[in-house]
Structures are given as C-alpha cells and as structure tokens.
Amino acid sequence: MSDPVSLTTDHPVQAASATPPAPGGSRRLSDRWLAVAFISPALLLLLAMSVFPLLWALYLSFTDYSATRGGSAHFVWFENYTAILTSAQVHLRALTTLIYVVGAVTLQTVLGFTIAYLISRRTHGRGLLTTLFLVPMMLSPVVVGLFWRFMLDAQFGVINSMLGSLGLGQVEWLTRQRTALFSLIVVDTWQWTPFIMLIALAGLTAVPKYLYEAASIDRASEWFRFRTITLPLVWPLLLIAVLFRAIEAFRLFDLVYILTSGGPGVSTETLSFHVYKVAFLGFNTGTASAYGILMVLIVIVLTQLYLRYLNKLKED
Amino acid sequence: MLATTVTACGGDDGASAPKAPATIPELTKDPLTLSFIWFEWPPAQALEAFANAEYKKERPNTTIKVNTVPNANWHDAMFTQFAAHKTDFDIAILDSQHIGEAVTNGNILDLTDFVKKNIDVNAYNPYLLAAYGQFPQAETGKRDENASLYGLPLLGDTWTMIYRKDLIGDKPPQTWDEMISAAEKCQADNPGVSGLAFHQANGSDAAAVTYNTVNGVYGGNLWDAKSRKIDGVLNDAAGQEAMDVLVNKMKPLTAKGSGNWFIDEVNAAVAQGKACIAFNWIAASGGLLDPKQSTLGKTREEILGKLGFATLPTQKTNLVPLGGMGMHVSAYSSEANQAEALNFMKWFERADIQKKWAAAGGVPSRTDALQSPEFLNAGPFNQVYADSVPRMRDMWNVPEYARLVDIENTNVNAALNGAKAPKDALNDIAKEQQAVLNSSGRKGGGGL
C-alpha cells in the first residue's frame, strides 16, 4: 500500500483490503473460505463431469475393457495405441477428416470474411443483414442435416430440381464418392460461415477509422488499404476463429451421421464417426478410449503450435 | 432379481445368462408399466395399441409402453443400457442376430425352464422358435432341442416382392433371372419408373440383407458356422456371382440416387408409382395400401388392382431372408417387472391371442395362427409370409454380429455406389469379417 487510505464504513471493501488481518481469527481466511464455498460446486461439477471421465478414459485406454462384456479390465499397456496408429482403417479416416477440415474451414474463412467485409462497408441495414446471416448458426446440426438431406435428395430434392430447370443433369450428392464429402463440406459451410463472419465483423469494426482517413488523404487505392490496413489488423482475430472452427470440424459427427452415415462405403467416415463405431458397435471400450485420447492429444499439440504462431504474429 | 443362478448353455461359447424361473412369480397388484424397446415403425405402434387393449383385460393394473428409437440407433440404444446394467425397458425386442451378444454378456434371462413349463413348443415351426430365441444359433431350418432359449417370437417377417400388376402383368416372375428381365422391360417401357427398388443404405442391416438375400438365392453361404470360416466361403464362386448380379444387373435398374435407400424410401417409391418391382419387409408394407399415402389409387381395392405381393423368386435355391424379432426379458429389470414380462409373454403366445395379434396387423409365429383366416385375410402379403416360412435363412447370430454386419453393410454399399469394385468389396468383406471372428478374445486393439 503506498498511501494510507481514509477508511469509512461506507467502503467495506476498502476496509477489508486495508485492515491488517487480526491475529488468530483471520478475516482474510474467512474470505478465502467464502470464495472456496462459492467456487466448489462448479469445481466439483467440473471434476465429476470432465476431469474424472477424462482420467478414467485414460486409464481404460491402457486396458482391454469392454463395457458390455463386463468383467475386470486387464492392462494391455500401449497395445490399443499401437493398433490405432498402425491401422490402415484409421489412416483412411484421418485423411478423410483432414480433407474435410481443410476444405470446410478454408471455404468458411474466405466466405465469412468476404461477407463480413461487404457488410462492414454498408451503412444501412447492417444489423438486419448480420442477423439474417446468423440464422443457420442458430440451428441444431441434426436439423440442418435433415433439411439438407431432403434438399440434396437425388430424386425429390430441390437442388436437383433447380439443376434440372437449368437443363443440367441430376447429381447423386450423397451417394457418390466424389460428391458426398463435398456435400458435407457445403452443408457445414452453410451452417458455420456466419461464425467466421461474426468474428471478422468484430475485427473489421474495431479497425481505427483514422487509419483509413490517413490513407484517403494519401490517395491510397482500395486494394492498398485492404492489404496494408484491414487484413493485418483483422488477421489475428480471424486466425482465432479459424482455430475454433478447425477444432469443431475435426470432431465432426452429427452431419455425417444424418447425411451419409459415413457412406458411400466408408468414404465420408470421419475419425469421430469411426470412434463411435468402435465404441458402440463392438463395445471395444479400451480401444475407443485410446482413440479418443489420441484425438485430444492431436488437437492439443496442433493448437499449441498454432497459438505459438499466433503469438509470434502479434509480436511482429 | 429373479435370476440368481448362472447357466452355461451349449457349445463352447461361454454364454452365460441369469435364469428365469419355470413358474411365474406372484404378480403385483400395484399399478405397473411394462416397457418395451423397439425401433420406430408401424408394428411398434400396433403392438402398444394391441397390448393395451387386450392385455389390460387380464391385468388392468398394467400399462404397456413401447419406447421406440430410430432404426439406426436400435442396437446401440439397447446395448448401451445393457452396458450400464440398468435398463429403462423390461422387454427388449432384439433382432435375431442380437441374441448372441446379449446372451454372452448376460443381459437377458435364460427362458428355457419357463418355456418348458408354460409354452407349447410344438405349436411353432421349430426354426421360428429357434431363430427368435435359441443360442447357440440354430442350423438353417432346424432347432436344437438341447440348446437354451432366451426369447419368444413377437413378430415374424421376411421380404416380399412387390410388383406392379398393371405394368408387368398379373403373374409374378418365378425366377431371379425372370424378375430382372421383367424389371428391365418395365423400365424401358415406362420412362420415369425404375425397374427395381431395394435396400442399399449402409445403416442398420440394409445393404447387408440385400446381398445376403441374393447370395442365398444364388446358392452362396455366409459362413461355415462349425469352423467359423467366412473367408473362402462367402467369397466363393456363388458369392461372387451373387455380388455380380446385385451390382451389375440389379443396381442399373434402380433409381438414380437410391444408394442410401432403406425401408421408407422403397415404400415411397412404390407408393408414388416410381418402381416396377420392389423388395421390402412384409411388416413394413402395410402403408402401401393406404390411399392417403399412395398415388396408385383412391381406395385400397384400386391400389390392390395395381400392386401384387409375392414370395421372392427362386434361382439356384429358394432361400428368403429371415426377419422379425423376439421378446427378451432384461436381466436388469425389477423382480415385479420381470414377473410381469414373463406373464405377458405367456399370454401373448396363447393361440387365441396370436390370432388376435394377426388380425391387428401383427405377424404371428404359431403355426395355427399363421394358417388362421384371421391372419391370411388380414393383408395381401400374409399368405406370402406363410409360404415363406419354410424357406427362411438367418444371418450369423454371434456376439460379434454388430461388427460383422457393419463390415458387410459398408462394403456392399460401396460396391452398389461405385466406391469399390464388386469383387474387391466381397473379398474385403470376407477378409475383414474373418479377422473379426479370429480376433475374438484378443487383448487390446479390437474394433478397428
């Protein structure tokens, strides 16, 4: 404390922080206990719902446990991990997931930023437009999946109907290898582009106006302003949005389940969908736990690398 | 729990399930809800309505509730609860192929003694009784008298061939080749109408049952049950021919984009007049005669003027797929509910109730009910079922069933949708399924 503060009963908080603790029955201690009392329910819930299951899954991942076969779990140590990392089936799902993540996130970023940029330049109806664009994001992925399943139906779907009226042929959106994964990317993009748009819009509105005014005085072109002012200032925020979307896309399950069930064959089976099958078709709980742990590790490692790059960008 | 003793049933399967008592324990006089779990389709609602109307006459304090889940979640919904050793259902309606998994894990009661004391087993075609309750699995068409029973028939089912009498004639094709020719001609003569409609989806057991049906008709085998051999059996010459017929002769006659069709989509195609010949489960075909759902006529009679129902054509054999399900008592139900479940099953399998069930739209399993006018006159496809009973063949009934069917589903679906060559798909099925059977009991890394 630098200056002595005049204490009054009108400022109990000040009084509490300024008064030295009484010997013996410490008031600060009681405050701490109060804090603990307030925090502990949430903390216990977190421990019960997140930390314990994670630790339990970690334990199971080293065993041959099966939820339905019961009995005790026998340690197999790293056998589950070895099997997963060397499985051609897993490699195939990893590649599918990678294509999906890169495709969906790239498309969403480009579209989201473009829409945000166009909205940010408008003076009228900006709020209404933003609200309208946000609607897909508010819907449940299962509902979105069902909507699009009907729309993409080769026989009765509105998409093929429109293509037909343009004189184009029918496309088997969900039942052909080349188009099924593309359809998933399109549907995910339709739903989650607004998320990127929203964050990009926040970044764009935060760019100081005087920079643009200075650029105008210097007769800088639109492209120059975008390249040297807008993009560098919005870029870090956009990268955070990309991070969130990439993590979400990596965990994709619901859309696959509703739209394609992983088909045709297994060509749209993502890692999450495959984990589900391992866990609930054969009830290989130990293997599924190891699979889940590996997925978490991959996300953590990639996120760390990404955040380092982000921090470096900020420093620069 | 009623079940206190553990029994090992025949074979080396190590199957163990708690035993139900031979005599039904005293029933409660308190209000009780007897819960079933099934998948969402018309027979589920029919069962709930029928049971609440009829069983309540005997047990006024009991309410029947049939909980349903989407077909694709059916297995998971039951077995995740079994895994938790706590079920919100008393009677699980298992597909015949689920029995092995449920018995091995001790999820359902062994009803052998109960059946001996309360059920007239001679009233059934032995294979039907075996298919819906026996483990280890029965040989096709037979029942092992020494094997244990874990369930009783609830709903019989098989595929029916649905054909457009106004497009291909009143007489249904008799052989598979004739059927394909008729479908080809019908498709060529009627633009906008596809020759065939059948299950191709990679969910549930859709595409797998389709291949198994064609495999059976062409003289193939799914496996050698005794030696647990699939590789070299499924993909032998007959199996390859069946896959070739399915992918190269039948698939081109289906509608574009039908590669993810299952029960509802096939019915929709028939009802909208978009298919010349279709294959579907009998128990799911009732809606086809509803004028509100059909463009084929304004009355049931008008629709029946255009739609015919027949047993499946034959080729090298006359095999047809065994569908339907049995009732099985959850090992985790309360004593009162288990007792009620046993009482319900005893009641349901009575001759008079089976006939009423038939009249209400159900497909019974008792021979007397199957041959009763109540059943045969209840629907145009009921005679098809009665004629198909001696021709039925089931899939594998082993604890690894869910994984085996997924392998087959995904690979047949891949072949049908051009994601894999038919020959490669069949060889992959055989190889992967064999690996699953071989890895039974393996420590670690399973399920990939």
TrEMBL record, chain A:
InterPro entries: MalF_N, MetI-like, MetI-like_sf, Sugar_ABC_transporter. Residues 94-306 form the ABC transmembrane type-1 domain. It is a multi-pass membrane protein. Residues 1-26 are annotated as: Disordered. SUPFAM superfamilies: MalF N-terminal region-like, MetI-like. Its main location: membrane. Residues 1-11 have a biased composition (Polar residues). GO terms for biological process: transmembrane transport. Signal peptide: none annotated. The keyword Membrane applies. Gene3D superfamilies: MalF N-terminal region-like, MetI-like. CDD domains: TM_PBP2. The chain crosses the membrane at residues 33-59, 98-119, 131-151, 192-212, 224-247, 288-307. The keyword Transport applies. It is found in: Cell membrane; Membrane. Keywords: Membrane, Sugar transport, Transmembrane, Transmembrane helix, Transport. One of its GO terms (cellular component) is plasma membrane. It comes from the Bacteria. It holds the Pfam family BPD_transp_1. Belongs to the binding-protein-dependent transport system permease family. This is Multiple sugar transport system permease protein.
TrEMBL record, chain B:
The keyword Signal applies. Keywords: Signal, Sugar transport, Transport. SUPFAM superfamilies: Periplasmic binding protein-like II (SSF53850). It comes from the Bacteria. InterPro entries: Bact_solute-bd_prot1 (IPR050490), SBP (IPR006059). Residues 1-22 are annotated as: Disordered. Belongs to the bacterial solute-binding protein 1 family. PANTHER family: ABC TRANSPORTER PERIPLASMIC-BINDING PROTEIN YCJN-RELATED, ARABINOSE-BINDING PROTEIN-RELATED. This is Multiple sugar transport system substrate-binding protein. It comes from Sphaerisporangium rubeum.
